[in-house]
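Q: What structure does this chain adopt?
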Amino acid sequence: MVNPVYARMGTTIFEQMSGRARASGAINLGQGFPDAPGDRDVLDAAARALTERSNQYPPMAGLPELRAAVAAHYRDHQALDLSPDEVTVTSGATEALAAALFALISPGDEVLLFQPLYDAYLPLIARAGGTARLVRLEPPHWRLTADALNAAITPRTRLVVLNNPVNPTGTAMDRDELGLLAAFCVANDLVAICDEVWEHMIYDGAVHLPLMGFPGMRERTVKIGSAGKIFSLTGWKVGWMCAAPALSGVLARAHQFLTFTTPPNLQWAVAEGLGKPDQWFVDMRAGYQRGRDRLAGGLAEKGFAVLPSRATWFLSIDLLASSIMIDDATFCDRAVAEAGVAAIPISAFFAERPVTHLVRLCFAKDLAVLDEAVARLAGFRERLIGEM
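A:
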């Protein structure tokens, strides 16, 4: 018999919309990946390593060079004092999430999640035998409050899963929110699994604040990162998880029975890339901010109400405030077929009581592609309003 958790699942909304975009030739602003090929230096380093270095099993926890590079990168960029021994390399951030959840959940444990949420969290928690407790964040600001936390926790709560910066909302929690969450974790003896794959995609001069750096969190945080996001190489699936020794050893033992290891040439290339000068990261962010501003400004000029985006590769439009009187799923279904633009309904990121008037768009595209998408969506909006 098949496992009922997976038997009930459909294909993810990202794969559905990307599949429709591929089949129809639509502009894909749904699934989050850039148009650009990725950093040339990192690509060349991977190619050299493939022919000049070993292609046999690297160490299970990752190449020493990459583990050291991750620790040094977080020391320099986020003032975290990590040892290379506290870093485990994984085959992407989703594998890191799976390893962390499988390692730290015992049957019956409860896990706090913030919705809207990344779609992998719920099935992984269920497969580990845990139960999700949902903390609802409300648009347009999506702020975390003490009341919401206190309403969700029970005596069986053991973990918190935090995605920050936040996909799909395009927000980043500020110091007050993170301080509130850190104090809550300490007071209730909770471990925080922090999905921080968007840590370098934060704009307008803001800086990423890792929860691990807050008082009391060094020993109770699993910090997860992604080279695929940092270097715009989403197909590489190179990630890592960082934690104090009491946690990292258990995490590594879970990882060894998932993917065991990650292609060594990619690990060497990422290790080299993480040592790039600060200006490279500044310029990378500026490029994505230009895409954000181009898409947001173009949509606003055409009558769309655009929610603020401080981080990630995504922004949202408010259908109701844009005088579009259909729900987000219907809008996205029709947009890919009638406007030739694929988007993602925000309702797909809710497990219960979804918000149904917001649509997520990816701005990590060439400016000309974004301009064409704006033109198509503007015409589509006019047709929808004409139907009312």
